[in-house]
UniProtKB/TrEMBL annotation:
Name of the protein this chain belongs to: EGF-like domain protein
Laminin EGF-like domain location: 29-76, 80-121, 125-154
MF annotations from Gene Ontology: scavenger receptor activity
Keywords, ordered alphabetically: EGF-like domain
Pfam families: EGF_laminin
Domain EGF-like: start-end pairs: 24-63, 75-109, 111-154
Organism: Ancylostoma caninum (Dog hookworm)
Xref: PANTHER family: EGF-LIKE DOMAIN-CONTAINING PROTEIN, SCAVENGER RECEPTOR CLASS F
Length: 157
């Protein structure tokens, strides 16, 4: 087994997971300016543990994009293909479209069918369409027909 800094695995074939660094990724990174590693654009150097921003972001909290919202690439010269009104963000380094809940597709061009909801339409609606008019595409809540109430719309008003 190899002992590698910034890498892990028997043959040092896997990079450190987010928030770890050092020999065999055994050290936990300190918070970067108080930012959580889990849901941010901040990263820690896999060798030194120093705080840095992910590629395409800058600023003390790593929230400021290097490129405009609809552009990406090393020199910000590529146009994002995302349908921006359906999109949370276009990744400044790859152009990957992160869709708003209720939308899916490479460009966030697809609205969820009435049977699905949420991020990338990955959740199944639990609504009974005999007593509901629709499933909310962002929350999954059943929208009751007139005269009905309750989470599953099974109660009469």
């Amino acid at each position: 087994m190899c002992l590698c800094v910034g890498w892990m695995g028997e043959k040092c074939e896997r990079g450190c997971p987010k928030g770890f660094y050092g020999p065999m990724c055994s050290k936990k990174c300190d918070l970067c300016n108080g930012i959580s590693w889990a849901d941010s654009n901040a990263a820690c150097d896999p060798i030194t543990g120093a705080c840095k921003c992910e590629r395409g972001y800058k600023g003390p909290d790593c929230k400021q994009r290097v490129c405009d919202e609809d552009m990406y690439g090393l020199d910000c010269s590529k146009q994002c293909t995302c349908i921006m009104e359906n999109t949370e963000s276009c990744a400044p380094d790859t152009g990957y479209c992160r869709c708003k809940p209720g939308y899916a597709g490479d460009s966030c061009e697809r609205i969820c069918s009435k049977l699905f909801w949420g991020k990338d339409c990955a959740n199944t609606c639990e609504c009974n369409y005999n007593v509901t008019s629709e499933c909310d595409l962002t929350s999954g809540r059943c929208v009751c027909l007139p005269g009905r109430t309750g989470a599953q719309c099974v109660y009469f008003l």
